[in-house]
Amino acid sequence: MTHVHAFIAVDRLLQDLANCSLQFGGKVILLGGDFRQVLPVVLKGSRPLTVASCLKKHNLWSKFIKLNLIKNMRAPETERKFSNWLLEIGEGKSGDNVMLPDIYYPSEQNPIKQLYGDLNLSTVMPEELKGRAILAVTNDASIDINNQVLVCLPGETVVYEAVDDIVSDDSNDRLTFPVEFLNSLTPTGMPPYKLNLKPGCIIMLLRNLAPTEGLCNGTRLIVTKLQRNIIEAKRIGSVNGETYFIPRIPLNPSDSNMPFKFKRKQFPVRLAYSITINKAHGQTFKKICLMLINPVLGHGQLYVGFSRFKSFDSVTVVAPSRKIVNCVYQEVLND
Q: Which ranges carry the DNA helicase Pif1-like DEAD-box helicase domain (predicted)?
């Protein structure tokens, strides 16, 4: 979900451009969204700060005409029970804990076996995997699962090592934070220092490379060729099957909590067999495994995780028990 500061900036910009003091310069603004979903991420933010980052808590919200959508377009009419159950989760009607239906909680609690148990990963084709994903709560859990899946896939692994460097004029910083330490870091939104890939593997972009071509942050692609300084890939869902060339670029982590700044020159991609729930926002899969070994951390995460597919038989869950945590901020849902 977009931070309220972005809407304020657009409002002021349009007022300046149109030389008009009306909201958004008197222009018609069309927005779409679901406040049951994940809220804007506020680094180290408390619940009040996170809620305050939402457009609904700003006076701009009162200027909009609200139209409510009532039909779940992902779920067919035959899955009305699933749609109602999903709404109960999104609105917190089930309380802080949700009891999973038996169909969601199989005896096999291995996420890779749950999702790919019907396939032979050693001979599988990329197209058979593109509609599946393991959704994790944390970035570290997602990285670990991706590496496990890659080992099972056919082909030879190609390792791309990044170039890390401290961004500082103080020579002491290079002594305090040596390159070996930087290599060990994988901040959220950054590719790893050692990027392990195979031809045919599924990757996700971590930066906007060519928005007009559909190459945006979060776009999933299938690798077609791995060269020394270029990755060739095809976008999943592309009609014309066009091949795109992904270069190495300098990247800076967005985590401002670090006591130093550093840059990493690496391909702006990561494996995408497993992604975080937040990163899955806006995507639809044919089959998923929701890994809830760690409980959800914020408003709407469980709702987003369970709304990435179309029916009850499209998901399984890995969790310590059938009783799982749900987090809903009622102050956001109340208009």
A: 1-95
Interatomic CA distance for residues 321 and 31, integer angstroms: 38
- Spatial distance between the Cα atoms of 77 and 134, rounded to a whole number of angstroms: 26
Tell me whether strands 274-276 and 132-136 are parallel, antiparallel or unpaired. parallel
Using CA atoms, how far apart are residues 121 and 94, in angstroms rounded to an integer?
A: 38
84, two tokens:
């109602």
- Sequential DSSP letters for 37-106: SPPPP-TT--HHHHHHTSGGGSGGGGGSPP----S-SSS-GGGHHHHHHHHHHHTTTT-SEEEPPGGG--
Report the amino acid identity of residue 172. Answer: N
For residue range 98-140, list pLDDT tens digits in order. Answer: 999 888 898 889 999 999 988 998 888 888 898 999 999 999 9
Residue 173: helix, strand or coil by DSSP?
Answer: helix
Which element (helix H / strand E) includes 6? helix 4-18
For 122, the token pair is 């050693």
pLDDT in tens, 217-235: 999 999 999 999 999 999 9
pLDDT at 146: 96
Rounded Cα–Cα distance for residues 109 and 115 (Å): 11
What is this structure's pTM?
0.89
* CA pair distance 315, 306, nearest whole angstrom: 8
Alpha-carbon distance of 194 to 143, in angstroms, equals: 12
